[in-house]
Specification:
Blueprint: H1 6-18, E1 23-27, E2 36-43, E3 52-53, E4 61-67, E5 70-75, E6 81-87, E7 95-98, E8 103-108, E9 113-120, E10 130-131, H2 143-154
Antiparallel strand pairs: 1-2, 2-9, 3-10, 4-7, 4-9, 5-6, 5-8
């Protein structure tokens, strides 16, 4: 039995605070070949996930907020925002599912936020994500400004 409890959550929050990237994941799947990839992602505000989509092979992705607050953003192929949802268990907005072939990103809005992620497998790092050319790559200059511009368009604030 896989158990998600207060001890695991606390440990993940502690690790994400120490991480240079501001996030850490804990996998529950049994390797890359598992047909259902399952993991917890602990994030801190300011961590950047470049918009991407899962295609060839096509994969759906589900995000469920356990603690904290996130915004899941879906994009048109040209980078315009198509839709979004604030995941916040306190306000009973728990989960969002992203269809295959759909650009998306997640922005962490509060410290110590943890999301449970489910994605079709198998996982192959060579073809898992197709990154959007219209968004900065992780580690490049402009990541923070890009996230701020998305939040401004959606009129959403981040707590650091």
């Amino acid at each position: 039995m896989i158990k998600i409890n207060a001890s695991l959550i606390k440990d993940m929050m502690d690790e994400a605070r120490k991480s240079q990237r501001g996030r850490i994941n804990h996998n529950f799947h049994y390797g890359g070949e598992d047909p259902l990839q399952r993991m917890l992602n602990s994030m801190q505000p300011g961590t950047y996930l470049q918009p991407h989509k899962h295609q060839n092979p096509d994969k759906r992705e589900v995000f469920m907020a356990l603690t904290g607050k996130f915004v899941v953003i879906q994009f048109h192929d040209d980078g315009r925002i198509a839709d979004h949802m604030i995941l916040d268990p306190k306000n009973k907005n728990f989960a969002a599912e992203i269809s295959a072939r759909t650009y998306h990103t997640i922005i962490c809005l509060e410290p110590d936020s943890i999301i449970y992620e489910l994605k079709d497998g198998p996982y192959n790092p060579n073809d898992d994500k197709h990154f959007a050319a219209w968004a900065p790559k992780e580690g490049e200059a402009g990541c923070e400004g890009y996230m701020e511009s998305l939040l401004k368009q959606l009129e959403i604030s981040m707590i650091k």
